[in-house]
Give the backbone structure.
Amino acid sequence: MSALLCGEGLALVRGGRLLFEELDVRLAAGDALHVTGPNGSGKSSLIRLAAGLLKPSTGRVMRADAALADEGLALDRELSLARALAFWAGPQLAQALTAFELEELAEVPVRLLSTGQAKRAQLARVHASGAPLWLLDEPLNGLDRKGVGELDRAIAAHRSNGGAVLAASHMPLTGDWRSLELGA
Amino acid sequence: MTGRLIAREVRRGLHGAAWLPVAFFLLVATIVPFAVGPDARLLARIGGGALWIAALTSALLPIERLVEPDRADGILDQLALTGMTEEAIGAAKMAGHWLTFGPLLLIAAVPGSFLVGLDGPALGRILVSLAIGTPALASLAVAVAALTAGLPRAGALAGLLLMPLAVPLVIFGAAAAGDAESAALKLEAAVALLLIAGAPFVTGAAIRASRT
């Protein structure tokens, strides 16, 4: 079975500092990898590397279609949530709104969403994309307990449908994750 | 995705202050007769050039909202993840920006021409030269916006970058507005083509370089 994400011999130098080297990352269908490590250890950089937004100093990355949730909300603030999400034309928009209980907020302008609501909207954007590979950078930030539960269920459903998840978080994630510690 | 991005740029342009460059353009055109005096012959002679200066300065106004908000909010990253190249993003932004900038400016150029004493054939010439020139101004604005995105004092820096790059366009554009016999219109079109063709590549490279 072909991997959804395959990084071999990755090294990354940022600002003259070596964040990691000789790193191999491989995610097949159903896999989930939790990247941990102290602040500044390169968790977010690894996510951006996997997304193809950064080039590794050495090594190479190959991946399937991916969806990314990082610190950028990437939803037009003047639009209603439903229209802002619709811009990204995700094939599973309706399911994503249900999964993160956003139907009631569908007509609310994005700029009025609270931190946690915006985080759920961002995760819904990832869910709606239908991409097999999810790249989540600190997905728990701002989520309340209910939101965390929604995320756990969405991730479990995504994995059982043959998807894979790469998440960077300094907080523990529930469920069955392989873990990769950076900066150890 | 390209079509949706163009439509989004148009929507945001119209929601934002699409009238601002137009109002600025008309304001500059209004000030010209006050500055050089009411001599109709003199005004008619410099009118084309004055409107070109007005168009160039009004092209600077929207620069800060063209690329930087999308970079800061992660929209550019998400577009890249959908498989769009940065060059295609730049081209779509150019098209979307021109649609909210060019046609409005051309409409404003009609009253603007009367303010500086141009009418009849002279009005037709300035409209043609601006119709050819505004896509190039819009392309330059997007490219410069991408080059300065994320920098402190980006607005002032953008002005310093854009003005010198627009000099050939202004020379031939203003000449084409003044004289129908010369080859200035063709040269203006050639310069405009060069700017429009080059801008997506500059924009694309700048977007990639601004990633952290």
Notes: Residues 2-209 of chain B form one domain. The two ends of chain B are 24 Å apart (CA to CA).
